[in-house]
Structure formats: C-alpha cells, structure tokens
Design a protein that fits this description.
With about 130 residues, the protein is an alpha+beta fold. Helix content is about 40%, strand content about 15%. It has five helices and three strands; from the N terminus they run ααβααβαβ. Strands 2-1-3 form a three-stranded antiparallel β-sheet. The chain starts with 12 loop residues before the first helix and ends with a strand.
Length: about 130
C-alpha cells in the first residue's frame, strides 16, 4: 500500500525516511539507471555529404545555367561560368556538395525553375567521396 498523500501534496519526511535514495538502490530494482558518457560518445557524427550534378543538354541556355548557379547554388559569377563551361565541355559537373536534404531541395528548386522556363535541364545527386 502506498504511504504517499493522495491530495498531490509533497510527502512528509517521515513517509520517505526509510526509502533508499536513487543512488543507493540496487540496479536490478525497477527504476532508471544513468551513466555518464565519455567525450568520444558525446561527439556528434557529421552527416554524409552528396554532390549535386548538372547534366549537359542541347537546349538549356548557358545564361540560364549561370543564373541558376548564382541564384540557387550561391556561386559568384566567375565560379558559375567555370562550372557551366565544365558541364558544357564534359557533359556533367558538380554544382555543389551538401547534406542530402539540402541537395534534394536545391535539385527540386532548380528543376522547377527550369520547367517554368521550358528547359529540359537535368540534375542528379550522388554520394560525395
């Protein structure tokens, strides 16, 4: 039978004086035991990174690709032109490296912009090394 007050008030000292403290309880008793994690256990793992790849096509204009790289991928004009030229000359190029969720968002946004301008621009995501 429980000897705690049922009105929600704090237990009186004489009601709990014979109970063992949490630190004194046997670990096999019902209750929660905690332990301190070591420093290495507390360190967070970095999320895996993914490359967003631009694919060359014969219809999407160079200007649009540069604009997308500046607007969506936040590249400066020099870098955007260099990436666009690489894609044009090699068929594929890296627009950026991000966590999966960010990469997916950038691909979706770019695809919507390309579709709105009636460009068949294709992008893909692959794990970064």
């Amino acid at each position: 039978m429980c000897d705690l007050p049922i009105d929600g008030s704090a237990p009186r000292p004489e009601m709990v004086k014979d109970r063992p403290r949490m630190s004194e309880r046997n670990p096999t008793e019902t209750g929660t035991l905690t332990r301190t994690r070591t420093k290495t256990e507390r360190q967070l793992k970095k999320p895996p990174l993914f490359k967003v790849l631009l694919h060359n096509d014969d219809y999407t204009t160079r200007e649009f690709v540069v604009w997308v790289l500046q607007t969506v991928f936040h590249k400066n004009e020099t870098d955007a032109v260099a990436i666009m030229s690489h894609v044009h000359n090699h068929g594929i190029g890296v627009a950026g490296v991000y966590t999966f969720e960010v990469a997916e968002t950038k691909v979706t946004k770019t695809m919507h912009l390309a579709k709105a301008q009636q460009f068949p621009l294709q992008l893909s995501i692959e794990p970064a090394d």
